[in-house]
Model the fold of this input.
Amino acid sequence: MAKVAVLLVTADFLASDFIVDNELPPLLAAAAKDGLVIIPIIVSASRFANTEGLAQFQSVNPPSRPLSGMTKNEQEELLVKVSEAIEDALGR
Done:
């Protein structure tokens, strides 16, 4: 079983029936039951902060500061933070 799930959040991701109906429920259940660590990355503007179930998870970057609006250097710094968060979740 996975220990970490990285979610690349966009408006299309949140609007996808497949994601909402098939992908998110088992991830949210595993987070609640088994301690799965969910790491959202806000890729582009979305309603992440208003999405029940997901808004409880701390995203790597604030919803007001999506990856798409960052400079290349800021994006790379964010991705380093993501890798560190994954390592922390895996206990390394």
